[in-house]
Specification:
Number of strands of chain B: 0
CATH class of chain B: Mainly Alpha
Helix content of chain B: over 70%
Strand content of chain A: 5-15%
Order of helices and strands of chain B: HHHHH
Shape of chain B: globular
Structural class of chain B: mainly alpha
Strand content of chain B: under 5%
Oligomer: heterodimer
CATH class of the domain at 68-377 in chain A: Mainly Alpha
Radius of gyration of chain A: 48 Å
CATH architecture of chain B: Orthogonal Bundle
Number of strands of chain A: 9
CATH superfamily of the domain at 68-377 in chain A: Transferase(Phosphotransferase) domain 1
Largest sheet of chain A: 6 strands, antiparallel
Number of helices of chain A: 30
CATH topology of chain B: Arc Repressor Mutant, subunit A
Chain lengths: ~700, ~100
């Protein structure tokens, strides 16, 4: 040998990493150069690598097992049982149909464990578990009656005879749909839950241990082999998953990672994993991990697969295009870390039921952090190296900037959330106060109601019908008490509240506007009057309701208005003209027609069209009905026209004609309106016009806008 | 552990039958051999392997006779599991080669 063993080793390792013999050959030719001895030696060694595996295989010979079973031929007696026929062969034993003679005669299933294991300890462990097994009484669990040893020294178990098919085969053969499959699965979950409550862990849940048969046409699942995996494999301190020869018991395809790892600390959550794996197969039609691959893989490789590989979502495997909640349920049940799984089998069943009922499930796609964590865990070395490099480059600057930005964004976000929360709290508080005020109004305690409403700023008035009505009631109470300042404020609030809750073209809202405008003008709060006027014009600009138009028009022109306001009222004026000239609809009501003429006259007067105004006002007076506030108002407008012309005598006469009645009315108790009474705001309006008319007599003349 | 396994294998094979050579050199089929045969065979080859490459021999001791997993050995030696797997592949191949050279 021409080179040191250590160099040969290194070359061997490198070559062994190459997957195909051809690549290995090329590699060896390249590295060995002219050293033919070395090349030949390494070539031979590589060829031997796979051949050597069986030499180090400590698994018992397969021929040995089957040979032993020929001893137990049909008709043979094992203990109290007579074998009738061989019905199946499982991963770790052969199952016979047997007949029990005493104490009762019945047919049972008898399972002889195949592996050459310590029979005495198996039976001892079974005896230890027997108490718990006896407590289990569930229609979906097959009872385990007995355990013993055959004459050839193999342990056996005697179980309730279950005549059924593997759950997966049954679903396939019966063509069950997903809902029916999930129904079966939930029954299995409940059975497992029962066992867990009795302190029994199955440890080997898989489709071949869940048999289904029809009872009166209804498929009923039955879980078999309870307690056997435990008895056959591990007691405390012993490896729970493997035979003494480091071999998996049965198939590892449904085995939880921690159980495959061979730990003794296997709990109920290991069964949850196996249930998840079975659910996977019921959905996808195949187990989560390829059984053939697992069979061929070494124990180490199998452990690695179970520990690290994530099977594709079952829905995708089943041919669906989208990952759904059911996939998340399966993935949660099959989580690698048992703390992430469902705590109980019944929890898993409930989740499946929620899925069937289209309710949200608690299983969710793992968060990005979780997935990143998994990735880091899988590739610790690489991540460590990359992290060091990246952080070296980034240095403090990147981190500091990032931290600063994050801090800033967080603070802004927090401030915004605070504000929203405060507003919400405030809103709720104001609503509560209005509700209390409404109660007080109902009890007639208006003073208390007013006090409550007074604490709410006008722009924060809660938007509701209840609030609007409450404000109006309190406002009317103020009017009757002659407190116009407070009345004005409450009417304004009522108008805002109404308009926001009711977007209809309704005179119940415009009347509040008129009342608010009247009160505000009366108390000379012109800034507030301006606001409510703008609001009213905007809110009712396109109105088709003549009374709304009449009220808004009047409300907007209680005081001299700028040109822009006048223009915005043109549409409403037009509507009123049509109404006055029509004999139908609102036009039929003479009283209303008179008011329309007054409003149109008022508008013409404010615009400086004195002749047109005079025409409208004379037409207004021509209506036969005697309604004193209206007659007075027309006279005062006419008086202002006269004084504008310089006819102070005529103006004074017009004023004096109605002055006394208005002043009398204002000193008397105002009324909210009735069949024979003038409504308060008509009198107040008249009083406003009276004051303006008097002012036009002796003050500097109110110049007509040109 | 190795001693126990070998002694047990020896006792068994001497009881049951005289040890016979069942390895087919051409196909290298060990399927017909019993576990005991294999234990004895590996044990015999270990003597030479220990002289030639003690690292491989130590690994076989730990893994084949001791029943330790690659993970456990890797943790013990302070190397990666992958390294142990590579060493294991070499050790296996070399031990078989020694056996074939002796035939």
């Amino acid at each position: 040998m021409s080179s040191e063993p250590s160099i040969r080793n290194v070359l061997f390792y490198a070559a062994a990493c190459l997957p195909t013999p051809e690549e290995r050959k090329v590699f060896l030719e390249h590295v060995c150069g002219g050293d033919d001895d070395l090349r030949e030696h390494l070539g031979k060694l590589l060829a031997l690598e796979s051949a050597a595996a069986p030499l180090f295989d400590l698994r018992p010979e397969k021929t040995d097992g089957t040979a032993a079973f020929t001893e137990e031929a049909n008709g043979t007696r094992i203990g109290r049982y007579r074998l009738i026929k061989r019905v199946g062969e499982g991963g770790c034993g052969v199952v016979y149909l047997a007949e029990q003679q005493e104490p009762v005669q019945r047919k049972v299933a008898l399972k002889v464990i195949r592996l050459g294991m310590d029979t005495e300890s198996v039976i001892a462990r079974f005896e230890a578990e027997r108490q718990a097994l006896a407590l289990m009484d569930h229609p979906n669990i097959a009872r385990v009656f007995d355990a013993g040893a055959t004459e050839s020294g193999r342990p056996y178990f005697v179980m309730e005879l279950v005549d059924g098919e593997r759950i997966t085969d049954f679903c396939q053969a019966a063509g069950l749909n997903l809902r029916q499959r999930l129904d079966l699965f939930m029954q299995v979950c409940h059975a497992i839950q029962h066992a867990h409550q009795k302190g029994v862990i199955h440890r080997d849940i898989k489709p071949s241990n869940v048999l289904v048969r029809r009872h009166d046409g209804i498929p009923v699942p039955k879980v078999i082999d309870f307690g056997i995996a435990k008895a056959a494999t591990g007691g405390p301190g012993e490896n729970a998953t493997f035979t003494t020869l480091d071999q998996f018991l049965g198939t590892p395809a449904y085995m939880s990672p921690e159980q495959a790892e061979g730990g003794v600390d296997v709990d109920t959550r290991s069964d949850i994993y196996s249930l998840g794996a079975m659910l996977y197969e019921l959905i996808a039609g195949r187990p989560p991990f390829d059984p053939k691959r697992l069979k061929e893989a070494s124990v180490e490789e199998t452990r690695r697969i179970l520990r690290e590989e994530e099977p594709p979502p079952p829905s995708i495997v089943a041919g669906h295009h989208k990952v759904g909640d059911l996939d998340w349920i399966v993935m949660k049940a099959m989580a690698k870390e048992r703390t992430r799984r469902y705590d109980t089998a019944v929890g898993l069943a409930t989740e499946v039921l929620r899925y069937l009922n289209d309710e949200p499930v608690s299983a969710r796609p793992p968060s990005r952090g979780y997935r990143l964590g998994k990735l880091v865990k899988r590739n610790k070395g690489i991540f460590a190296a990359v992290s060091i490099a990246v952080f070296g480059l980034w240095g403090g600057l990147g981190t500091a900037t990032w931290l600063f930005l994050r801090e800033k964004t967080a603070r802004q976000e927090q401030a915004r959330l605070h504000q929203i929360a405060d507003q919400a709290r405030e809103k709720a508080e104001f609503r509560e106060r209005v509700a209390q005020a409404a109660v007080q109004v109902g009890r007639g305690i208006l003073g208390e109601a007013d006090r409550l409403l007074g604490t709410i700023p006008i722009d924060r008035v809660p938007v509701s019908l209840e609030a609007a009505n409450c404000y109006r009631k309190v406002a009317e109470w103020h009017v009757l008490g002659g407190r116009f300042e407070q009345a004005a404020e409450r009417y304004s609030s009522a108008a805002y509240a109404f308009s926001n809750v009711d977007d209809s073209d309704s005179n119940t809202i415009s009347i509040d506007v008129l009342a608010a405008a009247t009160s505000l003008c009366y108390v000379e709060d012109l800034a507030a009057y301006d606001r409510i006027r703008s609001f009213a014009i905007q809110r009712f600009a396109g109105t088709r309701h003549p009374q709304v138009a009449e009220q808004v028009l009047k409300a907007s022109l209680l005081k001299p208005a700028p040109e822009s306001v006048s223009r915005e009222l043109d549409g409403m004026a037009e509507l009123l003209e049509q109404t006055v000239n029509s004999e139908a609809g609102w036009g039929r009501a003479l009283r209303f027609r008179a008011w329309c003429c007054f409003a149109l006259g008022l508008k013409a007067f404010r615009e400086g069209s004195d002749d047109l105004a005079t025409l409208w006002l004379q037409r207004c007076s021509a209506y036969p009905e005697v309604y004193e506030p209206r007659i007075a108002s027309s006279r005062f407008i006419l008086a202002m026209i006269e004084s504008r012309k310089g006819h102070s005598v005529e103006a004074r006469d017009l004023i004096e004609a109605s002055r006394a009645s208005v002043e009398r009315a204002m000193q008397a108790k105002l009324s909210l309106g009735g069949p024979d009474e003038a409504i308060w705001l008509d009198w107040v309006d008249a009083k406003l016009f009276l004051d303006q008319a008097i002012a036009s007599l002796d003050g500097p003349r109110d110049p007509a806008p040109k | 552990m190795r001693r126990i396994l070998v002694q047990r294998a020896r006792a068994k094979s001497s009881l049951k039958r005289s040890r016979k050579e069942t390895v087919d050199i051409d196909t290298l089929d060990f399927a017909d051999t019993s576990v005991d045969d294999r234990v004895l065979l590996v044990d015999e080859m270990m003597v030479r392997l220990e002289k030639e490459h003690s690292e491989s021999a130590a690994l076989i001791s730990l893994r084949f006779f001791g029943g330790l997993t690659s993970k456990e050995i890797a943790a013990m030696e302070g190397v990666t599991e992958r390294t142990i797997e590579r060493r294991w592949a070499y050790a296996k191949a070399r031990l078989l080669q020694i056996y074939l050279e002796e035939l």
